Amino acid sequence: MDRRALLASMLAIRAFEEALARHPDAGFQLFSSGEEAVAVGVCAALGPHDQLLSSGRSIGPALARGLDPGVVMAELLGRATGPCKGKGGRGHLAQPAAGFFGAHAVVGGNLTIAAGVALAMQMQRTGGIVACIFGDGACGSGALHETLNIAALWKLPLLLVCDDNGWSISTPREAALAPRSPADLAAPFGIRAASVDGMDVIAVRDAATALTKHVRGGAGPAFLACDAERFSTHSTATRETRSREAMEAARARCPIRRLAQSMRDEGELREDALATLERDAADAAASALRFAERSPPTDIDEIRRDVD
Amino acid sequence: MIYALAVPGPIEDVEELRVLQWHGEPGTRFAAGELIVELETHKAVVEVRASGPGVLRAILCPAGDWQAVGRTLALIGDDDAEPLPPPDAAGARFDVAFEVT
Amino acid sequence: MSTERVAKVFFAEAIARALGEAMARDPRVVILGQDVGRFGGPYREFAGLHARFGDERVRDMPVAEASMVGVGVGAAAAGLRPLVSITYMDFVMLGLDPLVNYGAKLRYKTGGQLTAPVVVKCTAGAKGQGVAHSQSLESWLAGVAGLKVVAPSTPADAYGLMVAALADGGPVVYVDHKRLFPTAGELADAPAPVPIGRAIVRRPGRDVTIATHSYMCRVADAAADRLAADGISCEIVDLRTLWPLDVATVAASVARTGALVTLEEGQLACGIGSEVAFRVREEVGRMRVVRLGAARAPVSGNPRLEAATLPRPDDVAAAVRRLLDAKADER
User: Fold this and answer.
1) Is residue C214 domain-shared with residue C176, that is, in the same domain?
2) Interface membership of A308 toward C (CB under 8 Å)
3) Domain range spanning residue C57?
4) Which residues lie below 8 Å from residue C31, measured CB to CB, with a gap of 6+?
5) In a 10 Å sphere around its CB, with 0-12 CB exposed, 13-18 middle and 19+ buried, how is residue C7 labelled?
6) Taking the C-alpha atoms of C132, C138, C141 and C146 in order, what is their torsion angle to the nearest 10 degrees?
7) Do C232 and C307 fall into the same domain?
8) What's the domain count of chain C?
9) C170 and C215 part of one domain
């Protein structure tokens, strides 16, 4: 995936979330802004036969994976045209036919599931691999330990991606995790690991590509830790705990500005081009919002459908 | 004398067993310690061995049949000539040793 | 009338037969659990399957139920049809997040895009192994929207419900019982299907309906023998499926007998009997009813304490007598 496409993908996520955040019916949301490079960089290494799973912070991963922004917005706003018919929302957004096996809102809840999906793909010999993005908040869970163990034992085709924004709501990672780096968790299991700057989409893409190559070769699972920053609160229901200085320092690492600057420096992006790209992204987000708003709300009778 | 070879017991948890394999046929002579029949429980095989000499005279429960603990599997005689009693006649028990493997 | 060939088999053999047939027919069926491979299952319920189908399809897992269930559910969502074997039902608790938060809700939360056709087999019941290796927790799971829960009491139903569970869209929790493995029963060469959601009248009777499941069916039967000597005729309804519950069969029985005893090895509070009693009352109206279950206590491995904690045939018989002696007005 070329740099222009990476930039456009990150811009699309940022604009989408800005449009959603302004909407009166946005409800309970977890935003990916700041963390776009993790999802976009990882997805650049995935192909059509692969599957991506995510945590409840699903907007970035879903859009990066290529889901249509209109149907994603519809799902978030509880419309019948969402891929889950509006019944999953952001926390359970999924479109497996498009390679997004789905989000799951339980911290660490998608990890053993991802191992199971990888087992099925291994046995079916599809050649596909599974990538699962989770936050640093899941690193203390037994589920991660069990997933690392079984993935290593069975050489599952699984790439575990820790989107480490340094916070479990109000608890900093250092207070929640004894190992210095999430990637240290992979070492005891003999799993190949890498740590990258999660605000540098090129670095994420390159590391993900190298690790997916390892996984595709049948050598077993891999672990990618991405050091990232979230630009807003953990969720729309949580208060900000960081100081203004800390927030400014985080925003200074913006992955979009960083890539745009790098492209400008190398003559790949004209001075005014970023503004144009931002406008295009805003237009696309507005279009997605219009599609969602015009879609019928989820039928109440859906309560009793798809239960058994 | 004709004796009844009964399913040995008690065996913990076990009420009835399946006859797995006879290690002889009518006319076979057994010495003490020899394996007469293997029985199957839900989790183990029971080896039934003669405690003393005897001749297998009639198999009442062939392989694949089921029988309860204490009930008769076969008739054993001191020799192979003595006439067999009617089926319902009570017989003394033929002594066996059994091992649950 | 056709002559149906039947053979007597142990409870575990019925399970192994159902799995062997399913695995031969459908390469997607796999078994995950502890001691399921060469060991053949803790109760020999998977005997011969590893020899036939190998390491790839019969996989021993570490003692880690969260990943056992999670991997099984995830693999099911991605196209396999796994059976996850939980040796002690007590430890299904460690797998409740993937089973309940993901598996049971998967079809719903994805709007039908994904399903989880997984069977989670748990062995329940008390048999001298102590407070954390003895529980019957099926009532917990019957309350989860999206799960089906079945509990065979005979080898024929162990086979039939396993066939049905493996064919179901899932997830299905299949609950067998430690004390059923030593038992034997008839299984036909070409058995009639046992559908999920259908109870059966195990023993017809006139004076009282005993609605029960799993090992307690045998306790009910022993109680019924004792009561028969006193001229009391008990109808035993084996629920077989705990969710979806076949209320109609129990209600039809109670409409005839007028009296209902619910009997379970699990706890009474929010137990299967509470659900059965209330739902039957909704159908039948006035009736005499009593629920029987474990005393409200953990079940000690001390054999005398264990026996006194759980319903025994004499307890059931005494309860039936009290119920029938009571005034005809229902509670």
Assistant:
1) no
2) yes
3) 6-188
4) C19, C23, C46, C49, C57, C58, C59, C82, C83, C85
5) middle
6) 140
7) yes
8) 2
9) no
* Domain end position, chosen among C165, C188, C211: C188
Domains for chain A: give ranges and CATH numbers.
3-289 (3.40.50.970)
CB contact under 8 A, B42 and C8: no
For C148-207, how does the pLDDT look when each residue is reduced to its tens digit (9 = 90+)?
A: 999 999 999 999 999 999 999 989 999 999 999 999 999 999 999 999 999 999 999 999
CATH code at position C314: 3.40.50.920
Find the catalytic residue in C45, C65, C138, C275. C65
Q: Which amino acid is located at A43 in the chain? A: C
Q: What is the DSSP string of C218-283?
A: HHHHHHHHHHHHTT--EEEEE--EEETT-HHHHHHHHHHHSEEEEEEEEESTT-HHHHHHHHHHHH
Whether A170 has a pLDDT exceeding 70, the answer reads: yes
Domain assignment present for residue C31? The answer is yes
Residues C154 and C234 in one domain: no
First vs last C-alpha separation in chain C: 46
**DSSP, res A297:** B
Q: Does A196 touch chain C (CB under 8 A)?
A: no
Residue C331 scores a pLDDT above 60: no
CB proximity A88 to C under 8 Å: yes
Amino acid letter for position A109: G
Task: Kindly give, in sequence order, each residue whose CB lies less than 8 Å from that of residue C261, ignoring residues fewer than 6 positions away.
Answer: C208, C209, C210, C211, C289, C290, C291, C292, C316, C319, C320, C323
Q: In C, which residues are within 8 Å of B15 by CB distance?
A: 182-183
Spell out the domains of chain B, with CATH numbers in brackets: 2-100 (2.40.50.100)
Place of tokens 């290796």: C133
Q: Which amino acid is at A7?
A: L
User: If you average pLDDT over residues A206-218, what whole number do you get?
Assistant: 97
Residues C181 and C212 reside in one and the same domain:
no
Backbone torsion region of residue A89, taken as left when φ is above 0, otherwise alpha when ψ lies between -120 and 50, otherwise beta: left
Tell me, yes or no, whether C71 and C215 share the same domain: no
Nearest CA in chain C to A94: C110
CA distance linking residue C266 with residue C278, whole number of Å: 17
Cβ count near C195 (within 10 Å): 13
CA distance C63 to C328: 53
pLDDT in tens, A246-257: 999 999 999 999
Domain end among C149, C167, C188: C188
Whole-number Å distance between alpha carbons of A68 and A65: 9
Looking at the structure, do residues C219 and C181 belong to the same domain, yes or no? Answer: no
| Residue C316 domain-assigned (yes or no) | yes
In this predicted model, what pLDDT tens digit does every residue of C228-281 receive, in sequence order? 999 999 999 999 999 999 999 999 999 999 999 999 999 999 999 999 999 999
Token representation of residue C89 = 């039902």
Nearest to C182 among B18, B42, B64 (CB): B42
What's this model's pTM, rounded to 2 decimal places? 0.96
Whether complex ipTM tops 0.95:
yes
- The answer to whether residue C21 is catalytic is no
Is C330 among the domain residues?
no
Q: Are residues C39 and C106 in the same domain?
A: yes
* The token pair that represents C262 in the structure block: 């619910």
Burial (Cβ within 10 Å: 0-12, 13-18, ≥19) of residue B83: exposed
Decide if C175 is inside a domain. yes
Q: Predicted confidence band at C3 (pLDDT cuts at 50, 70, 90)?
A: low
